[in-house]
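The following block was generated as part of the benchmark described in Methods. Ligand: flavin-adenine dinucleotide.
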Amino acid sequence: MVDRNVSLKQMNTFGIDAQAKLFARIHDVSHLESVLEQHSEESIFILGGGSNILFTNNFEGLILKNEIKGFKIIEETDDFAIVESGAGENWHEFVMKCIEQNLGGIENLSLIPGNVGASPMQNIGAYGVEIKDVFEYLDAFHLKEKEMHRFHADECKFGYRESIFKNSLKGQYFICKVAFRLSKKHVLNTSYGAIEKELQEMQISEPTIKDVSNAVIKIRQSKLPDPNEIGNAGSFFKNPVVPIDILSNIQKKYPDVPHYPAPNDKVKLAAGWLIEKAGWKGRTFENRYGVHKHQALVLVNYNQSKGEEILQLSNQIIRDVEDKFNITLKREVNIL
Ligand code: FAD
Ligand code: EPU
């Protein structure tokens, strides 16, 4: 069934009050095919959990909300299992289900909002792990050619918060299921300082994957605003990867600027730190929107703000950081 003039307010974590001219919940591929056939002229947008989107307008086309479910172990040895998940499954619930079955590799990605189907879009990552580390393949339906295609990791062109689906194949494929290779003999990744510290506080010396997941959940709850309480889409910008001389310049004034190694002799800087040092952290505009007071990388909608206002705020921040540090921040959030 296709509905008309549907409010998207409850379907995006920013809580922006936008409308879709046409809207359908997709449960399987044959349903997708019949909806596409009936509405072949419409522009299309695929929606997952709405946690990485800023609506700046009503959408004058057809929104397909991916609700394809399923969880299946399709191959298993003593060492690993390959697990297929429907794209419409909630990511965190999927992580919890894997941990319950003692399948490891994604425990550091606990509590990331959104759906499994969107996880390859920007190669979601947190606390030293990205989904490219465990990705096996995905099946996606080409919206124009009406054909299913299987993508393996090398075809997805994964990078830091990037994939081919966010770039040259943007908007072309409806991801239906994603498969991950998860371990039974776990190699924990606790290299991120905050995880080590949290485990110590929890007095755990030999952590399980469940312990690491619990530590990550605690850290995230203390750092990031809960979208159920304050509208947001996580990090609004990507952390910039810059040549080393840009870092050297900043170090003249700020010797303790946080920085991390990146490929090709570059360094990754913390956009949150740059935005904070530029004076934006905690600023609120018209009592409705602003920059979060604990995490400057997160733009927030406190109360009924418009997507366009948040977009303009992001433009001001980009210009100011450019003026102050000669670095152009790139948005992580998808603007619609
Ligand atoms: P949506 O926002 O619905 O869509 C995102 C994009 O993917 C859109 O372009 C959409 O068209 C496309 N898309 C969605 N589903 C499909 C599909 N089935 N087929 C084709 N295209 C599709 N991200 C991180 O990487 N790391 C973090 O630590 C992190 N923390 C966050 C914390 C908070 C509080 C919030 C609100 C967000 C955070 N995010 C983080 C961002 C977000 O959770 C991820 O990007 C997530 O994968 C988005 O999933 P979604 O289902 O909500 O996608
Ligand atoms: N920092 C500041 N001020 C701030 C925020 C951060 O100085 O307001 C400094 C911190 O003190 C730290 C550094 O910046 O030295 C990095 O901060 P943090 O560890 O909180 O990570 P982040 O760079 O802000 C990134 C990801 C998050 C991910 C965490 C944990 C990006 C764009 N963001 O945040 O992902 O959860 O690391 O791995 O890479 C997302 O993509 O939506 C997201 C939340």
